[in-house]
């Protein structure tokens, strides 16, 4: 049996090496496409990297099932495989990712997807995410160099292979930004220094430099976004605001392309820059979302051990496609696809899963929530409220199994908990409501610019984040914008047409009449006029057709992830 285990462990290890090498190959293409302004290749490269893990995993799991056959559930073989694999990965700088890869193969191969601490890496994990001062990943600039010299050296050290549009102006913009934000509050001392991560973070049309300055006996983090416009590269702004930095790494954003030879060290530095972000969120942000899922699950298990509240039905209007529940003490919701959908919903469970997959591979432009997909998710039976159990049995009974005092859910999605927009609008002040409905419209338009038409745009399908940003989270009716047909409603000309109880004109599947949005989008009397005036474009078919044309022409419409007013050159084309 030991002789049999070693080649199987080697197959998993070789599969992991293939994954990492391919992941890095895609990642290293990002700066090339940025320099070339090849935005279509940038998008394709991003999607290919996202597909990589599952594609390799399914191939490897199929091989394992064929080799092991009836021994797929043999615990002794798996113990030996794990032991041999552990020796292969123990000295790797990315050992935590290798552990997660093993878990994935095991769960896809072993019958009924058990959670087994003897056979898997359940709670061990590699958690050395503290950045080392002498790390090769850092560039350090002592304050003795002088502020302007530091800025010039930073722009010299990060060579994008493209000429600057106006390097001298960029230097002065950055110098003035540091003076306004840091030097008006803190004095430069002997120990003052600035550090930047050597790896550059690429996403869509932007490159980001991540750094921190030690001043006033604490680290002051900052981010420098760089764009590559028609006239060359330029520094777009200097970000010190922790909320804006957090938003750049939001669960509503696509993953960065960044070289991470030692992922835990990159995460460690990011954690010092954005301290309230959870470790699993940071792994997600740099593209290792499968390991982010592993850490999320470890956090979930730890939370269960240290809490006593029960899982309950999530507040809000019940969905027609999803059953949603939550644990009040945890900032997460759990979503199950129902067994049956009431009219007018006429899709299948698989079609809903395809919509969620589409979102996982698409640019979320800060407006769609990231999800983790789980199979055979386990919850202690005594933590499930009676009301929730009844709801689950009534709506998604085919996904449930009870075993050893645990509720096992065959398939679900986890998502960040948000305040449903319709609930927020019921009680908020007029001022807060105006801001929310403004952002609601912006969310729809920014999704459209990313070639996403939300379909069902009722406020119950949107939520507010901690920072009161409006996010779309109901994906069962989304379509690509370019597939929709935006029309003006025909004008009735006869008595029969004017008083017809049903539309007298033909309506095809993907026809959309934007003027109809006015009737149902916002109901509150004190908010509706403001919303209609603020977002006139929403109701104009010509505007939607214009967006379609830009997308069909191959344009990548860049959603700048920070306010236009903080840009050094507002309105500068990217």
UniProtKB/TrEMBL annotation:
One of its GO terms (biological process) is glyoxylate cycle. Residues 9-307 form the Isocitrate dehydrogenase kinase/phosphatase (AceK) regulatory domain. Keywords: ATP-binding, Cytoplasm, Glyoxylate bypass, Hydrolase, Kinase, Nucleotide-binding, Protein phosphatase, Serine/threonine-protein kinase, Transferase, Tricarboxylic acid cycle. Residues 309-564 form the Isocitrate dehydrogenase kinase/phosphatase (AceK) kinase domain. InterPro entries: AceK_kinase, AceK_regulatory, Isocitrate_DH_AceK. It comes from the Bacteria. Pfam families: AceK_kinase (PF06315), AceK_regulatory (PF20423). One of its GO terms (cellular component) is cytoplasm. PANTHER family: ISOCITRATE DEHYDROGENASE KINASE_PHOSPHATASE (PTHR39559:SF1), PTHR39559. This is Isocitrate dehydrogenase kinase/phosphatase. It comes from Algoriphagus aquaeductus.
